[in-house]
Amino acid sequence: MLSLNDPILKREIIMDHYTHPRNKKLSDDPRYLKVNMNSESCIDDLDIQVFVEDNIIQDFRFDGVGCTISTASTSILGELIIHKTIDEALEIIKNYEQMLQEEPFDEDLLEEAVVFKDVSKQANRIKCATIGYHGLKTLLLQIRGDKK
Looking at the chain, which terminus has fewer C-beta neighbours within 10 angstroms, N or C? Predict the structure, then answer.
């Protein structure tokens, strides 16, 4: 498990996902659902894509312009949710949101995403850290048929 107390390791993980983001390339496959997420207060403007088959997330992709926090958090998100069920992914998102709201959360479930725990101390960065998560949540609820 990743130590929440090692700022150097946390920074290395964030910078690695920012400079070498995973799954940062959109697909032309029509089976992918897509949503655009952008921020009024930052440069973040990301397209989020997900491909779900038989209730399993087969692929997750994103592209666009994003700050370090939004790019890295979205990259880590993709690694967390590929090959998970919709419900498992929504549970990861719920725990991530709880972490950022300084509520109890399951560290093991979030794996590398725990590097963003201190973002809760910078309210203006929370939107950056959640833009990909909110985009994926929108798509998964749409697939599931929820109106929320």
Answer: C
Q: Sheet harboring 33-38: ordered strands across?
A: 33-38, 45-53, 56-65
DSSP letters spanning 66-77: --HHHHHHHHHH
* Gap between the terminal Cα atoms of the chain: 33
CATH code for 26-144?
3.90.1010.10
Burial (CB count within 10 angstroms: exposed 0-12, middle 13-18, buried 19+), residue 2: middle
Coil/strand/helix, residue 83: coil
pTM for the predicted model, two decimal places: 0.92
**Vertex 122, ends 117 and 128: CA angle to 5°?**
75
